[in-house]
Specification:
Layout (H helix, E strand, L loop, with lengths): L3 H8 L2 E11 L8 E11 L4 E6 L10 E7 L20 E4 L2 E8 L1 H9 L14 H15 L4 H4 L2 H5 L14 H6 L1
Protein name: EF-hand domain-containing family member C2-like
Pfam families: DM10_dom
Main location: cytoplasm
Amino acid sequence: MRTPIDVVLFTFNILTFDAYFKDLIHSVQGYDHVVRKVKILFYLEDSTIKVVEPKVDNSGIAQGCLIGRQRIKIPESGAFYDVIDFNIGENIVLFGRNFHITNCDTFTRNFLRRLGVRVAEPLSMPSDPYLELRNGTMKSKSDRDPSPRDDKFKKFIEYDKKILRFKGYWDENERQSVL
């Protein structure tokens, strides 16, 4: 006889957690770290973990899959991470980086509750000083009045990230008849 948890295991195989880690930087004035937001995926079928960072335009940081899907050992004990090691408010150390879990999706919340794990309320993400500084400069640029000097860049901004494509063909028939 199947229990409700067995049915859930076959329906969805992934627990999803929102987390962040602080990446220290040294050469920028005004702040000493960047807050990087990630998704931690825990696959129930084989207890593997994957960490993905959503891409942010023009961040200057390599983003995407930070840790490929694999089983990871807990640094202190040497045992592998398991479902009960993940919860809101927990700090998880993966390959020397300290990830702080702030939230989880509805399926994950319900799954952990069915296992008897008490799931805390979502925590707020800390603010990122770099993004605050960057958004402040972008806002000040967008608030100013457009001048004639800015009109020459209007088309450049309008067609940014669009693909320019030409179709054509090379006709050698006329040239060969002349020779």
